[in-house]
Design goal:
alpha+beta
């Protein structure tokens, strides 16, 4: 095994120099196109899932004889509720503290690229690491990306440092509306996807959402709630990197909603920094 000195682990040695240079615009565009296509197909699959669940709930509500409220709400009302939800996101922002170990390097805005779909908002994504998704459209996506390269072979640990907050409320109750959303990480090497990790942070429907549901936490600790199983957290991500490779790392927020007139909600994400730990590869 490679020696790292007394009391030092692989990620506690002197850090490997990182290259934060951005490739030419046409290369960035190609990489963004690959990400966008992967995101599109993932969103389509997830939308089919919530639409199927919505159909099942509608059938159960009808069978049970419950009165469903399917009156079309005005776009103005939906917009006002959506704005209220986004305002509440700001009031629910949670502060977090982080202690950086010796040798850690920090990346901060401006980031290198951003992407959105549907009602995703990336107006401050590159400049401040702030972005949001909402239920105003069936599919909503927002992502920020940054490039990392190395000058020598390295094991690199990437940890997004920041917070998320989501709020969901029923506009009609009961209703067959269904909404799911969460955070993902995706890594591309020279444009090719090589790593993905997905989390679902909320999974609500209009048949049981009788009061607003709220969730918040640190990005790195985001995970899909699974009863009786040890959670898989969104970060850190550990990748073997070699010189000459361009790694594009995406943090991606998503929301898929069926019957959008029955649920109003949004998630805001703040990514003020990314912690990067690096060291020469461990040789066994």
């Amino acid at each position: 095994m490679t020696e790292h000195g007394p009391g030092l682990t692989a990620m506690e040695t002197a850090p490997v120099a990182l290259d934060r240079s951005t490739p030419p615009a046409d290369e960035v565009g190609r990489h963004e196109g690959v990400f966008a296509e992967r995101a599109r197909t993932t969103q389509e699959r997830r939308l089919e899932e919530v639409q199927t669940e919505s159909t099942q709930i509608a059938s159960l509500l009808n069978t049970s004889g419950l009165q469903t409220h399917d009156t079309e709400l005005s776009d103005d009302l939906i917009e006002r509720v959506a704005r209220q939800t986004l305002d509440e996101l700001g009031s629910n922002v949670k502060l977090f503290e982080v202690t950086l170990p010796h040798g850690s390097q920090v990346l901060a805005p401006p980031y290198d690229t951003a992407w959105s779909s549907g009602s995703g908002n990336i107006g401050q994504a590159e400049s401040h690491g702030i972005f949001e998704v909402s239920t105003k459209t069936e599919s909503s996506g927002a992502a920020v990306g940054f490039y990392i390269s190395v000058t020598e072979p390295s094991d690199v640990q990437i940890t997004p440092l920041g917070t998320y907050t989501w709020i969901m409320r029923a506009l009609q109750h009961p209703s067959p509306s269904v909404s799911r959303g969460g955070l993902n990480i995706m890594v591309q090497v020279n444009g090719n996807p090589v790593f993905e990790r997905h989390t679902t942070l909320w999974n609500v429907n209009g048949s049981n959402l009788d009061s607003p549901a709220i969730g918040h936490g640190e990005i790195a600790w985001a995970h899909t709630p699974v009863s009786g199983v040890w959670p898989v957290y969104l970060a850190p991500v550990i990748i073997r990197m070699d010189p000459g490779q361009r790694h594009l790392v995406w943090l991606w927020a998503w929301s898929q909603t069926a019957q959008i007139h029955g649920i109003s909600g949004a998630m805001g994400v703040s990514l003020p920094m990314v912690k990067v730990d690096s060291a020469p590869p461990i040789v066994l």
